[in-house]
Design a protein that fits this description.
- The complex is a heterodimer of chains A (590) and B (461).
- With 590 residues, chain A is an alpha+beta fold.
- Chain A folds into 3 domains: 7-73, Elongation Factor Tu (Ef-tu), domain 3 (Beta Barrel); 208-438, 3-Layer(aba) Sandwich (Rossmann fold), CATH 3.40.50.300; 452-589, Bovine Mitochondrial F1-atpase, Atp Synthase Beta Chain, Chain D, domain 3 (Bovine Mitochondrial F1-ATPase, ATP Synthase Beta Chain, Chain D, domain3).
- Chain A contains 16 helices and 26 strands.
- In chain A, a hairpin with a 4-residue loop joins strand 3 and strand 4.
- In chain A, helix 11 crosses helix 12 (488-505), helix 12 (488-505) packs parallel to helix 15 and helix 15 packs antiparallel against helix 16 (572-589).
- By secondary structure, chain B is of the alpha/beta class.
- Chain B has 3 domains: 3-80, Elongation Factor Tu (Ef-tu), domain 3 (Beta Barrel), CATH 2.40.30; 83-359, 3-Layer(aba) Sandwich (Rossmann fold); 369-457, no CATH class.
- Chain B has 13 helices and 21 strands.
- Chain B has an 8-stranded mixed sheet with strand order 9-16-15-17-19-14-20-21, sandwiched between helices.
- In chain B, helix 10 (369-393) packs across helix 11 (400-417), helix 10 (369-393) crosses helix 12 (427-438) and helix 11 (400-417) packs antiparallel against helix 12.
- Chain B starts with 6 loop residues before the first strand and ends with a helix.
- The chains are: A alpha+beta (590), B alpha/beta (461).
- At the A-B interface, strand 1, helix 1, helix 4, helix 6 and helix 9 of A face strand 5, strand 11, helix 6, helix 7 and strand 21 of B.
Chain lengths: 590, 461
């Protein structure tokens, strides 16, 4: 099917190519263009003319060159070997490309996503004569120490098993199972499957999302929580710390698997992930983080059409592992680059632009993408989820631009990054006034189980947010009259807000102890700060000058507890609570 | 090159600004290089921007002046735009297409390379972590430059950015290492006097023989600027990855480059996005800026120092905005500081080096670097807030602690940021100076530094 041309190139402008005399092709079919067989996709048909987007550099491509069809849409190869790999936007393994063309990525290079050489240790989970339905597990393969790969019956196959491979070593394209369908056809199944990336994978049903995605980042977990199966956006101008926030979430969230898409971003950042993740140890499994990571790197200098595709290939991989019953977190950095790729291609197609040159279908595409997140019951009957965390890079840092605005309609968590916080090197620079989370109520029960009544997450969170909001209002007055003019009750609010900001919300990614806080530590820290605040109220009520309260030695302990008290020595917080009481009692007694 | 056989045509259909539309052609490829001969025999160059079955749109690098519909000759060279590369190009000055304009003979090429380059495979990048000491405190301590980084300077018209860049080029070094280095200087739309300033500065520092210059002056045809940075980076890639040199690429001024891009897009009648710039401005800039770094198995490196002027000092303008999204940080210059008589006028708060954390700390600079830098940032950010407050309520009404911050701020600007154009501070000196300034604040405010660091570095009196 590859050898008969299906059309002829008639026009070339960058990644957009038109053909004539085109026949026998479908919308979104993958095609190969010219003698170099550049990879492309059909994005428009009109009579015998087709419009293609090409995923590789089209330099030298001539009108008259042949176009070949692969006969199927852009599809992801799914099977063992994905985890720990790094791919480009159309799922070509970058390591194999490096072997083929060296430090610069050449053109027309083809490499299968999954190695055909590796022998995987397959253990069957079904037997002959068994009836199988879509999503059922045929057998398992230890893909990494961390991830057990569950080979599933593809979504469109069901019937009676007529043969199944014995436990042993197999290559991905070897037959491991045969199924006779109700129509009487014999289907041969391998560990390798394909799925068209622009189509979401089917599930049995969607489930309510009420388990937090624990990230170990205090401002997220305690103030703007995220759920497994939720969708979140991190908007921020350049230099506000989007990437560092994404990296922190990718490192520490309690997902089973991370799919990290570098979409139109810096090459060095992907390298950083490649260097760092194999060295970092996941606190949940004590294994290197790389063993639960798949990377898709379509850096900004790679062709723009492949950047457009990278988001879809990434979420397809995430859904595939979700279907095995895993909780997958997908990080897309940055969805704005993807939106801009849409704009760039739309411009070359000479489509009528809507807002700021973006095509009119921008909102629809964004919605389709974020709706692929969710907690589900899989076809195989287990529970899995895809959580989506998308970075947004608004032009000029202005949140009123179309991508940020449309995105905010489709997500539940909005972590707005703040330029001013970032320039004070205050990270994570999540602005606690402009951010919000729609998941707060859903996760309250989970936190109740962790903290009980003594460390009541919901109540402490409410009080924290209240102090921060009152502080924000008071700051307007401070700007006019200065802090000195305020009564002590209000100074106490300002003071507590400062402690919350510096001792709790700010968290150093580079401090070994501080970089990740277990939920229990987060609760204890919050409890200590609020205890100090409440006792401060006692001080102020007795008209003792507030500076005496501010100069208590225990304050320094509170300011430094985040990096001093490790996750496994939470009893040290008891001493802190006692010290607060002793010193304040002494102050009152003076 | 005379052996190249291409297709030649006489006569074109339309000429619009820098673009020429030609019909009746055959077998021409996208992005091919074109030689154009005007009526009076002048040779010009161009490349194919768009090609159909019988027609093509060609962008002419030099002016389309002198081209006519009937007599313009066009030769399609069946290859993309290429330039010769060789070590001999160091010490020389070229136009955008690497033809010498310093009166000397053309260097003997070692190879011919297409200027458009290709994406570096991220798996073969080597993560940059070698600290480059520029001797400028505001950069070394606060937005550290590392080898293989792309760190642009955001300036505005009237600011002393040329002096700052010349000082960086003169002083930049890796501590304790002597390695072959080169500077590739890509100048787009530069004024004559500025070009002279750089030439003199290179000569005085004795670096002249290590500098290759690609020069398009302000009065040269603007479209040439689209090729200039590509030629400069193509030579840089050869010197870094084939010869093994550490190359610093200075590109100035990227704003002129982007304007040339807009000119072509407008002439083509493309759908504009922000401020009339084409929708592909991000991808186009990325294709330039990403040509920096270190790669596995090659000893050399490319460090990029592009300069751009922010129209009206507006950092949200598309050019600085998109640049900041691609590059690994930015050094921002400020008119307010220069107005206060501070050189270099580096505004440290919006400045940033994304690769800083990998280039500093124990064994690279000093173990306290990260903390002391973070502390200075936090303190200086507070200074700026207090200054606003002081302007409203008066300095007298400020709290004691706020007054201390103001004092710190004054010393920070006058002693830390401010330095002479020939003052080369070591990183030790810079960090010690930072500690000395922190002495103006009470110890209880120093929450970003560790207690043992306070004991070790904070001056006792």
């Amino acid at each position: 099917m590859h050898d008969e041309p299906v059309g002829k190139v008639s026009w070339v402008s960058g990644p957009v190519v038109r053909t004539v005399e085109t026949r026998g092709v479908h919308m979104l079919d993958m095609v190969e263009v010219g003698d170099e067989r550049l990879i492309g996709e059909i994005i428009g048909l009109n009579g015998d003319q087709a419009t293609l987007q090409v995923y590789e550099d089209t330099t030298g491509l001539k009108p008259g060159s042949p176009v070949y069809s692969t006969g199927y849409p852009l599809a992801a190869e799914l099977g063992p070997g994905l985890v720990t790999s790094i791919y480009d936007g159309i799922l070509r393994p970058l390591k194999a490309l490096a072997d083929a063309t060296g430090i610069f990525i050449g053109r027309g290079v083809r490499a299968p996503s999954l190695s055909r050489e590796i022998l995987w240790d397959f253990t069957p989970a079904i037997r002959n004569g068994q009836e199988v339905t879509p999503g059922m597990i045929i057998g398992t393969v230890p893909e990494t120490e961390r991830i057990e790969h569950r080979v599933m019956v593809p979504p469109n196959v069901s019937g009676i098993v007529t043969s199944v491979a014995a436990a042993g070593k197999y290559k991905v394209d070897q037959e491991i199972c045969r199924v006779r369908t109700p129509q009487g056809d014999e289907v041969s199944l391998t560990m390798l499957q394909r799925w068209p990336v622009r189509q979401k994978r089917p599930v049995a049903r969607r489930l309510p999302a009420d388990t937090p995605l624990v990230t170990g980042q205090r401002v997220v977990d305690c103030v703007f929580p995220m759920v497994k199966g939720g969708a979140a956006a991190i908007p921020g101008g350049f230099g506000t710390g989007k990437t560092i926030t994404q990296h922190q979430l990718a490192k520490w969230s309690d997902a089973d698997l991370i799919v990290y898409i570098g979409c139109g971003e810096r090459g060095n950042e992907m390298t950083e992930v490649l260097v760092e993740f194999p060295k970092l140890i996941d606190p949940h499994s004590n294994r290197p983080l790389m063993e639960r990571t798949i990377l898709i790197a379509n850096t900004s200098d790679m062709p723009v059409a492949a950047r457009e595709a990278s988001i879809y290939t990434g979420i397809t991989l995430a859904e595939y592992y979700r279907d095995m019953g895993y909780h997958v977190a997908l990080m897309a950095d940055s969805t704005s680059r993807w939106a801009e790729a849409l704009r760039e291609l739309s411009g070359r197609l000479e489509e009528m632009p809507a807002e700021e040159g973006f095509p009119a279908y921008l909102a629809t595409r964004l919605a389709e993408f974020y709706e692929r997140a969710g907690m589900v019951e899989t076809l195989g009957g287990s529970t899995g989820s895809v959580s989506v965390i998308g970075a947004v890079s608004p032009a000029g840092g202005d949140f009123s631009e179309p991508v940020t605005q449309h995105t905010s309609r489709f997500i539940g968590c909005f972590w707005a990054l703040d330029k001013e916080l970032a320039s004070a090197r205050y990270y994570p620079s999540i602005n606690y006034i402009n951010s919000h989370s729609a998941y707060t109520e859903f996760v309250a029960d989970w936190w109740k189980k962790i903290g009980g009544e003594k460390y009541n997450w919901e109540a402490m969170r409410e009080e924290t947010v209240d102090v921060l909001r009152r502080d924000d209002k008071l700051q307007q007055i401070v700007k006019l009259v200065g802090e000195e003019e305020l009564p002590d009750e209000q100074k106490l609010i300002l003071d507590t807000a400062r402690i919350l900001q510096n001792a709790f919300l700010q968290q150093s990614a580079f401090d070994e102890v501080d970089t990740y806080s277990v939920p229990e530590k987060q609760l204890r820290m919050l409890s200590v700060i609020l205890h100090y605040y409440h006792r401060g109220g006692d001080v102020v009520k007795r008209s003792i000058p507030i500076y005496k309260y501010q100069q208590l030695p225990v304050r320094n302990e509170i300011m430094r507890m985040k990096s001093r008290i490790p996750n496994d020595k939470l009893e040290e917080f008891d001493a802190l609570d006692r010290a607060i009481d002793e010193q304040i009692d002494a102050l009152i007694a003076e | 090159m005379a052996t190249e056989i291409g297709k030649e045509y006489v006569g074109v259909q339309r000429i619009v600004g820098p673009l020429v539309m030609i019909e009746g052609i055959d077998g021409v490829g996208y992005d091919e290089m074109v030689e154009i001969v005007s009526d009076d025999g002048k040779l010009k160059h161009g490349r194919v921007l768009e090609v159909g079955t019988k027609a093509a749109v060609v962008q002419v690098f030099e002016h389309t002046t002198g081209l006519s519909i009937g007599a313009t000759k066009m030769k399609f060279l069946a290859r993309p735009v290429r330039i010769p590369v060789s070590e001999e190009m160091l010490g020389r000055t070229f136009n955008a297409l690497a033809e010498p304009i310093d009166g000397g003979p053309p260097p003997i090429p070692k190879d011919l390379r297409p200027v458009s380059g290709a994406a570096i495979n991220p798996t073969l990048r080597h993560h940059p972590s070698d600290f480059i000491q520029t001797g400028i405190s505001a950069i070394d301590a606060m937005s550290t430059l590392v080898r293989g980084q792309k760190l642009p300077v955001f300036s505005a018209s009237g600011l002393e950015h040329d002096r700052v860049i010349a000082q960086i080029i003169r002083q930049a070094k890796i501590i304790g290492k002597q390695e072959p280095f080169a500077v590739v200087f890509g100048a787009m739309g530069l004024k004559h006097d500025i070009a002279d300033f750089y030439r003199k500065s290179f000569e005085e520092s004795g670096a002249g023989n290590n500098v290759a210059t690609f020069l398009t002056l302000a009065d040269d045809p603007s479209i040439e600027r689209i090729i200039t940075p590509r030629s400069a980076l193509t030579l840089a890639e050869y010197l870094a990855f084939d010869v093994g040199m550490h190359v610093l690429v200075v590109l100035t001024d990227m704003t002129n480059y982007c304007e040339a891009l807009r000119e072509v897009a407008t002439a083509k009648g493309e759908v504009p996005s922000r401020k009339g710039y084409p929708a592909y401005l991000y991808s186009d800039l990325a294709a330039l800026y990403e040509r920096a770094g270190q790669v596995e198995g090659r000893t050399g490196s490319i460090t990029q120092l592009p300069l751009l002027t922010m129209p009206n000092e507006d950092i949200t303008h598309p050019i600085p905005d998109l640049t900041g999204y691609i590059t690994e940080g930015q050094i921002v210059l400020s008119k307010a500081l220069q107005g206060a008589g501070i050189y270099p006028p580096i505004n440290v708060l919006p400045s940033l080096s994304r690769l800083m954390n990998d280039g500093i700390g124990e064994g690279r600079t000093r173990e306290d670097h990260r903390n002391v830098s973070s502390q200075l940032y936090a303190a200086y950010a507070r200074v700026k807030r207090v200054e606003v407050l002081a302007a409203v309520i008066g300095e007298e009404e400020l709290s004691e602690i706020d007054k201390q911050y103001l004092t710190f701020g004054q010393h920070f600007e006058k002693e830390f940021i401010q330095q002479a154009p020939d003052e080369d501070r070591s990183i030790e000196e810079t960090l010690n100076l930072g500690w000395k300034l922190l002495k103006h604040l009470p110890v209880s405010e120093l929450t970003r530094v560790k207690e043992e660091q306070i004991a070790k570095y904070l001056p006792k009196d």
